[in-house]
């Protein structure tokens, strides 16, 4: 999977987030860019950073 494809998907559920009310932020541990959809954020679904393994709500 290319870097562009990964950037367009929610890290928690995997849906494409282009054109949605998604959030993008840096991993608190390593700075890797994380993308999450509005549903996963609202439900506080867990995510795991693919670079360092940090897990957050």
From TrEMBL:
InterPro entries: HVO_2753-like (IPR044720), HVO_2753-like_euryarch (IPR049683), HVO_2753-like_ZBP (IPR011668). It holds the Pfam family HVO_2753_ZBP. Residues 10-53 form the Small zinc finger protein HVO-2753-like zinc-binding pocket domain. Transmembrane segments: none annotated. This is DUF1610 domain-containing protein. It comes from Halovenus carboxidivorans.
């Amino acid at each position: 999977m290319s870097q562009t494809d990964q950037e367009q998907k929610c890290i928690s559920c995997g849906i494409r987030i282009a054109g949605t009310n998604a959030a993008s932020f840096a991993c608190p541990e390593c700075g890797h860019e994380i993308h999450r959809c509005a549903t996963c954020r609202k439900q506080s679904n867990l995510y795991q950073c693919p670079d360092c393994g940090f897990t957050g709500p």
